[in-house]
Amino acid sequence: MLDLKGRKGKWNISVLILLGILYLVIHCMAASRILLPYHIQVLGLVCINIILVVSLNLINGFLGQLAIGHAGFLAIGAYLSAALTVFYGFPFLLAILISGIAAGLVGILIGVPALRLTGDYLAIATLGFGEIIRVIILNIPAVGGPRGFSGIPRLTNFGLTYLLAIITVFVVKNFIDSAHGRAVVSIREDEIAADSLGVNTTYYKVAAFAIGAFFAGTAGALFSHYMQYISPAPSQIGFLRSIEILIMVVLGGLGSLTGSVITAFALTLLPELLRGFAEYRMVIYPILLILMMLFRPSGLMAGNELSFEFLEKLFKRKPKSNAKGVSPGGAN
Amino acid sequence: MVWYTILIQQIINGLALGSVYALIALGYTMVYGIIKLINFAHGEIYMLGAYFGFFALTIFNLPLIPAMLISMLLAAIIGMGIERIAYRPLRNAPRIAALITAIGASLLIQSVAQLTFGASFRPFPQVIPFQRIQVGPIFLTNRQLIMFGVAILLMVLLHLIVHYTKIGKAMRAVSMDKEAALLMGIDVDKVISFTFAVGSALAAAGGILVGMYYNRIDPYMGIMPGLKAFVAAVLGGIGVIPGAVLGGFLMGTAENLVVAFGSSTYRDAVAFAVLILVLLLRPSGLLGKRQNEKV
């Protein structure tokens, strides 16, 4: 999966080194009390949101299917992992893996029928599936029912969320750059044409959906063991959460991983930075969403990635040539 | 009570609630029929309608019918405004952009309502004293009768508008073929605006009826009925007006039966289960025509 040779390999290695340095910097800043435990706590949430946003971007941005039930997979991961560690004493890493696989399997189960639908119907059907998962959880007394699941041990730390966020971005990035990934993108560009060229569209749709669900499940596992409590409220695991993740994907740019990372970072930090802003958050987000759709429907990064080549092009650009000089989505 | 009286009782309760779902579903189905967009903000219009009615009844002390008319008028204006600002510029954009905008519009109205009206619920004024009517072993309330009656009256009015007026004819023409309608000299923008206005007015009426029925309104009241009404529209065949009515009544009844014979916590899951079954088994809905996909 992780290609370390050739041009792509160089990219992988250099980015990994940079991320390693970044981690060391954060670690040193935490050790020398420049970053307080509260800051690290927030950064952990940023990483969890990065996992959610990147995995949803795979489905919405690269596959081009508007699925809006992502919090359902988060819920499966959060509750299943908590049940495994609390009731059965599973080691946490194994619990994360199992939650991811379970969410992925549910993704396949849901994906096979739902992905026969397109556009609006798919959106509503996935929203429906997400809500059904939530209602089922509400009706399981063992995990707290409507009161929520409390008393979860705190097993997630910042390093783990950081590592899993990196793994998610790398797996999704390398998947997109592979032949399978090109098949997925071809479905977004023109499903009928892809079909007629021999791309097994159902297979790739379900595969991308399952990968997205898998990572959302792991994010859920991290989340419940980070907050030590998970509640079945719509803002936690319901459609409000799904839509919050969707907002991050869309603002960052459908089909741009860097965009996803940037918005996940910015939109998790903003409400924390501006306490008074928290109340107006849900007024400002939708306005941003509508304005973005009206004036820049491709999102912040418009399908581009912030890469070494993209930066080169950006700075070498002559004053006369306009934005068309940048090939969309191709830079990596 | 024996089981069949419970059954009949629940079907009656379901029909009363279903008539409101049908009112909301009509707005979804008309808008979808004309511009192929799920107007996610429709449930929020229903919520706003309830609040407008509430303020007209409490602050301005209006009687019920003028309050309802004013609320419907305001909702119609807001519905047209949303279409003009958020949806019209995106009419030729990819579907996903319009859909995301609709979600944004819905969230925006909800959050603004929460900030201006407060997040907690308000008791809806009791303009009509509660009465219980007994027919054999079955109980009815006067509110259920009013809800059902008003809904049916509005549906009949809508039927008359769509089938016997010039603008109704234009609506049908635009939903059949927008380009052809344009060539025949129909002002498509105006027809779409009118469709939003009518749909929003019906939703507002539904909001007031439900406010009276449950005695309470809150800024989130639009989410679930909005989704359920959408399911009702899909169940009946989206874009088909009689289908929305049928779907609404079926959804209301199904929901009440699940609550009566199953568990009330599964109440909201019913709608989505129905939706998924319909989409898998008969995506064109009960009264819809099957259409082949063109390349």
Polypeptide structure, described:
The complex is a heterodimer of chains A (332) and B (295). By secondary structure, chain A is an all-alpha fold. Chain A has 2 domains: 1-35, no CATH class; 42-239, no CATH class. Chain A is built from 14 helices and 2 strands, in the order αααααβααααβααααα. In chain A, helix 6 runs antiparallel to helix 9 (201-227). Chain A is globular, with a radius of gyration of 20 Å. Residues 319-332 of chain A have low confidence and may be disordered. In chain B, the strands form 2 sheets. A two-stranded antiparallel sheet of chain B has the order 1-4. Chain B has a two-stranded antiparallel ribbon with strand order 2-3. In chain B, a hairpin with a 2-residue loop joins strand 2 and strand 3 (138-141). The radius of gyration of chain B is 19 Å and the shape is globular. Chain B has a single domain (3-281), classed as ABC transporter involved in vitamin B12 uptake, BtuC (Orthogonal Bundle). The termini of chain B are far apart. Chain B is built from 11 helices and 4 strands; from the N terminus they run ααααβββααααβααα. The interface between A and B is large, with 41 and 45 residues.
In a nutshell, what does this entry contain?
Chain A has 332 residues and is mainly alpha-helical. In chain A, 71% of the residues lie in helices and 1% in strands. The C terminus of chain A is likely disordered.
Give the distance, in angstroms, between the N- and C-terminal Cα atoms of chain A.
17 Å
Radius of gyration of chain A: 20 Å
| Average pLDDT of chain A | 84
DSSP helix count of chain B?
11
- Using the 3D structure, state the CATH architecture of chain B: Orthogonal Bundle
Largest sheet of chain A, described in full? 2 strands, antiparallel
Strands of the largest sheet of chain A, in order across it? Answer: 1-2
Order of helices and strands of chain B: HHHHEEEHHHHEHHH
List the helices and strands of chain A in order. HHHHHEHHHHEHHHHH
Q: From the structure provided, what is the oligomeric state, counting identical versus distinct chains?
A: heterodimer
Proportion of beta-strand residues of chain A? under 5%
Radius of gyration of chain B: 19 Å
Low-pLDDT windows of residues of chain B: none
Number of strands of chain A: 2
- What's the total number of strands of chain B? 4
Query: Could you tell me the mean pLDDT of chain B?
Result: 88
Fraction in beta strands of chain B? under 5%
